[in-house]
Amino acid sequence: MLKNHWAEVLDPKDPLVNIRKKGWDRFEEIGLPRPKQEAFQYFPLQKLIFPKLALRKSVDMRPVAGLVFIDGFFNEALSSVPAPLVCQPLDVAMRSYGLFLQNRLARAMKEETDPFAALNGAFQGRGAFLYVPPKCQIEMPLQMLHLFTGEEMASPRLMLYLGREAKLHLVQSSQGKGFCNAVIDSVLDVGAELTFCDEGSSHFQAFRATLKRDSRLKALFFPKGEWTRHSIQVQLAEENAEAAIFGLARLEGDDQAHVHATVEHIAPHTRSRQHFKNVLKEKSRSSFEGKILVRSEAQKTEAYQLNNNLLLSDEAQANAKPNLEIFADDVKASHGATVGQLDEEQLFYLRSRGLPLEQAKQWLVDGFCREILDQVTR
Amino acid sequence: MIEIKNLCANIDGKPILKGLNLSIEKGEIHAIMGPNGAGKSTLAKILAGHPAYEVTSGEVWFKGQDLLDMEPEERARAGLFMSFQYPLEISGVTNKQFFQAAMKAQGKELTDEQLEEKLSAMEIRPEFMLRNINEGFSGGEKKRNEILQLALFNPDLAILDETDSGLDIDAMRIVAKGVNQMRRKDNALLIITHYQRLLDYIRPDFVHVLADGQIVRSGGPELALELERAGYA
């Protein structure tokens, strides 16, 4: 079935056709996840039914300040970015920024380990390239809005490049319900600073980032919808790069949220922090598989990883698998995971002052979430 | 005010209270003393409604209501207050928000003037109100924060569970002042303590000795002094 989809998008006139082919080949090498495969151990593979590929549609709406994707296709007419930012459809950008994009895309297709990110490489609708010129510091958050008109499969892709000492705050959100397999691929040049906040409802969201010297990434993920899987890979490629990655999922009913995060320390004096929290009500489920990989050259690395789960029902389930792989010898690293319930003593304390049980519970849940939410504004 | 009749209670199936009787009238101050493990804190927690304790038999009547039939929040709204031996830290909510919500839940109003007045009486710096509940408070500050709540809520029956533990002399004096200020002709106080020293500052009308889940002796304030000299044996 995916093969039929693949045949549909093979247009020899498409400037991205070679990239697509590489993406498809990579996808075929990796293959769809099999039951019991480690990276998808807790993922509900039975939910994986691929709908038809979405086609480019026109919608009647006013232009938006920011980037607009409709069913995964970048809509240039509806999008606007403040000068001197450059935002172009990926096929157009392949001409003007070909050197960077060809290299980055070819490498991404070659090295991708996540089948869905590879599949996005093959199926991507016309994605976008966003370029923030050196020293350009945009303080106002830039919106990246996805609109889904139906239940077809959308494959949006954003290639992002922050020049030297550039600064950007990007917020992703979505409207409508579609089957979405999204990729955001970013490069932070020397001293650049990216804040990325994901409030979208993609089923599959891959986030890739390569950080050069002195650059800083802060990424926040707030999964929404019935089921989501985030695949996050961050490379601290040069000295003094720093990444902070946060996540918070509030789940109820049959909701599921799965996170697969890898932070790779390649260069010395790099720092990373991962903190993911889940609140699980009713029959919801979550999984966290995080890895800190410290290469042998990456001395003086500082790397932390934490996953906290709050279970509010006997039927909810949280799985956590924090991993450390360290090949350097002068490293500060820690990882941990907790699965717990509301603290009975704290509940009793609040109730003993007259607060109703429900309010007391809500306060404790809010307190649990606050640590992550506070990161949004900082 | 409160009448405890033949109260028996377990935790994790282990009997802690074994037929406790105690009656406190309006205007009275009672102190319960006793060795560690006698069941003093258990009694305080059961009266406040801690869900981990199982009452196996007995009755507790508070202002004519069946206390054991009430949720912890209903007991607070009915005018019962317990000062915790180990006040909890709770993140995400400030002390001020906490006091406002608690006062509202108890059908009372909290004005800024009232809060300021009580803060200064308890010698708590106003900026503490903007911190999360009990977070970053020292042991003594937590206890003062409990007595501040006592002063704000103005309950009919206050139970002080080991409020003096961990307090230095200055903090003890402040706490005792706060407690003495809330005294009225129509309210009552139950002080649970291991040591006699708090009773130098807050003079009880009656002193009881709790041992092995029962009140084994009762007397006037002189009993506390005798216990201090001779011990519980």
Write the layout of secondary structure elements.
The complex is a heterodimer of chains A (378) and B (233).
Chain A (H helix, E strand, L loop, with lengths): L1 H8 L7 H14 L33 E7 L2 E2 L4 E2 L5 E4 H7 L1 H14 L3 H9 L4 E5 L9 E6 L5 E2 L2 E6 L4 E9 L3 E10 L4 E6 L5 E8 L4 E6 L5 E10 L5 E10 L4 E10 L5 E10 L4 E10 L6 E11 L5 E10 L4 E10 L3 H8 L5 H21 L1
Helix pairs in contact in A: 2-4, 2-5, 3-4, 6-7
Chain B lengths: L1 E10 L2 E11 L4 E5 L6 H9 L4 E10 L2 E2 L5 H6 L2 E4 L6 E5 H11 L6 H10 L10 E2 L5 H15 L3 E5 L7 H13 L6 E6 L12 E6 L2 E6 L2 H9 L3
Parallel strand pairs in B: 3-10, 3-11, 6-9, 9-10
Antiparallel strand pairs in B: 1-2, 1-4, 4-5, 7-8, 11-12
Helix pairs in contact in B: 5-6
Overview of the structural elements:
The complex is a heterodimer of chains A (378) and B (233). By secondary structure, chain A is of the alpha/beta class. Chain A is built from seven helices and 21 strands. In chain A, the strands form two sheets. In chain A, strands 1, 2, 3, 6, 9, 11, 13, 15, 17, 19 and 21 form an eleven-stranded mixed β-sheet that branches. The longest helix of chain A has 21 residues, at 357-377. The mean pLDDT of chain A is 93. Chain B has a single domain (2-230), classed as Rossmann fold. Chain B contains seven helices and twelve strands. In chain B, the strands form three sheets. Chain B has a six-stranded mixed β-sheet, with helices on both faces. In chain B, strands 2-1-4-5 form a four-stranded antiparallel β-sheet. Chain B has a two-stranded antiparallel ribbon with strand order 7-8. The interface between A and B is medium-sized, with 24 and 28 residues.
